[in-house]
Amino acid sequence: MNDQPRRRPQGKPQGGRPHRRPQKDPVRILAFEALRAVEERDAYANLVLPGLLRAAEQDAVRRGRQFDRRDAALATELVYGTLRRQGTYDAVIAACVDRPLREVDPPVLDVLGLGAHQLLGTRIPTHAAVSATVELARVVLGDGRAKFVNAVLRRISARDLDGWLEEVAPPYDEDPEEHLAVVHSHPRWVVSALWDALGGGRAGIEDLLTADNERPEVTLVARPGRSTPRELADSMPPGTSEPGRWSPYAVRMAEGGDPSGVEAVAEGRAGVQDEGSQLVAAALAAVPLDGRDTRWLDGCAGPGGKAALLAALAAERGAALVAAEKQPHRARLVARSLAGNPGPYQVVVADGTRPAWAEGSFDRVLVDVPCTGLGALRRRPEARWRRRAEDVAGFGPLQRGLLAEALRAVRVGGVVGYATCSPHLAETRAVVDDVLRDAAQARGGVAVTAERIDARPYLPGVPALGDGPDIQLWPHLHGTDAMFLSLLRRTA
Questions:
Q1: Domain range spanning residue 47?
Q2: pTM of the predicted model, to two decimals?
Q3: Which of 3, 182, 343, 485 is the most exposed place for a label (fewest CB within 10 A)?
Q4: How far is residue 201's CA from residue 464's CA, in Å, rounded to a whole number?
Q5: 471-472 vs 345-349, strand pairing mode
Q6: How far is CA 258 from each of CA 265, 272, 339, 431, rounded to the nearest angstrom?
Q7: What is the Cα–Cα distance from 76 to 71, expressed in whole angstroms?
Q8: Which of 272, 289, 308 is the last residue of a domain?
Q9: Cα separations (Å) of 334 from 247, 307, 324, 347, 357?
Q10: 71 is a domain residue
Q11: Quick one: pLDDT at residue 442?
């Protein structure tokens, strides 16, 4: 249905009132464009938003206007806040319209989501949130649908967020998972999977879901041999940096900090990397080995963050890293991250499930396998709406294949790190259990056996690591992505 009226000449009387051109608000138009890119092109907000911000800045300069830091901060808050709370806002919007949401055009839903976030998730005054969103609707949707947006937003503005949650979320005692899904804006299946992995009662899962909806810190990594955390912090303006919580290579940036303005980052001597990812690489490097320790492998190296840290750690010991990545464009990103590493390294385009290297070629192997990404929902909030429960099973064969080949790639006595940015049990412990069982039961060819290593001693000072031997990090407990790590030593 096209309910957008034909455009009337400017100044033409309309119900006794002259037609007024809609006011273009560059901040809200930018936020709308980002949401449309996420919806239409499966883009990730953290990738598309920087380009839109640069374009808005350049356009403002051309027009003799200003698009300053406050504008950029508001646009970022509108995009990420709307995406994080999409499930909650959809439930509220559904209570305010007279049709199923699937019958509302997606661009209209995006405008309503932006309006709902301003009304329920920010301190923007009600009249300003409504009027600014209606003006946005006039610009991007037309006057006809702007009237619909206006009517819905006025219904939404009748209650605050707590009032709406009482209205649209089922009581916890009647349906705990659906209550948490609506209140904390996660798909029900994700709530269930996270709860299974976390264990425990209501308090823990509520803390985790709350942490998923908070803006993550920007964390930098000082690459050994090229930079130090102290140098990195000293190069930043006073008061804009803090030491990492757990990683000896980490520096945390103050809220709103721009890593591209840090000289060491621009030069590749440091990078942007979550502390959980730093800990995974550091733990693999810390496991003691008997005998040779000269060849390391990152079997799933793209886009290159862990590979850069591993290569630097290897160089300190006179070892060389082979960074393998199946996709050529991602291999180029790896090469860019590794450029300037003080020790020898090699970047190869290779499939870790059908390796180009001989069995037993390496002393240490990391496979940070492709996964659902449920551990990084703070950074990629749209992933929670994009993933489906069946995706977990789809990743399973690849994850098992990569780990099985990693165990063949490492020498007897060498160590393999299996890592994934998902806490889902089917992507973590179940994968390791299956591969170890299948390897022990192998018939024909060379059987590969391995044993788990208790990984906890190789994350010194990190609390709440559970009973081991594998480790699972959590946003609400550690302030990191929900990284999982299992360390395995090949025994035969």
A1: 18-156
A2: 0.90
A3: 3
A4: 16
A5: unpaired
A6: 10, 10, 22, 37
A7: 9
A8: 272
A9: 22, 7, 9, 7, 19
A10: yes
A11: 58
When pLDDT is averaged across residues 60-73 and rounded to a whole number, the result is: 84
Tell me whether the omega of the peptide bond preceding residue 469 falls within 30 degrees of 0, making it cis: yes
Is 421 labeled as catalytic in the residue annotation?
yes
Handedness of CA 200, 206, 211, 212 (dihedral sign): positive
Same domain? 266 vs 287: no
Please tell me whether residues 481 and 393 are part of one structural domain: yes
| 338 plus 486 within the same structural domain | yes
Residue 19 has pLDDT above 70, yes or no: no
Residues 269-297 pLDDT 10s = 999 999 999 999 999 999 999 999 999 99
The two three-digit tokens of residue 340, written as one number:
């300037």
Does 154 score more than 90 pLDDT?
yes
Note the pLDDT tens digit of each residue in 300-351. 999 999 999 999 999 999 999 999 999 999 999 999 999 999 889 999 999 9
363-381: pLDDT as tens digits: 999 999 999 999 999 999 9
Label residue 256 by pLDDT band (50, 70, 90): low
> What does the H/E/C string look like for the chain?
CCCCCCCCCCCCEECCEECCCCCCCHHHHHHHHHHHHHHHHCCCHHHHHHHHHHHHHHHHHHCCCCCCHHHHHHHHHHHHHHHHCHHHHHHHHHCCCCCCHHHCCHHHHHHHHHHHHHHHCCCCCHHHHHHHHHHHHHHHCCHHHHHHHHHHHHHHCCCCHHHHHHHHCCCCCCCHHHHHHHHHCCCHHHHHHHHHHHCCCHHHHHHHHHHHCCCCCCEEEECCCCCCHHHHHHCCCCCCEEECCCCCCEEEECCCCCHHHCHHHHCCCEEECCHHHHHHHHHHHHCCCCCCCCEEEECCCCCCHHHHHHHHHHHHCCCEEEEEECCHHHHHHHHHHHCCCCCCEEEEECCCCCCCCCCCCEEEEEEECCCCCHHHCCCCCCHHHHCCHHHHHHHHHHHHHHHHHHHHHEEEEEEEEEEECCCCHHHCHHHHHHHHHHHHCCCCCCCCCEEEECCHHHCCCCCCCCCCCCEECCHHHHCCCCCEEEEEEECC
Residue 212 located in a structural domain: no
The domain total for the chain is 3
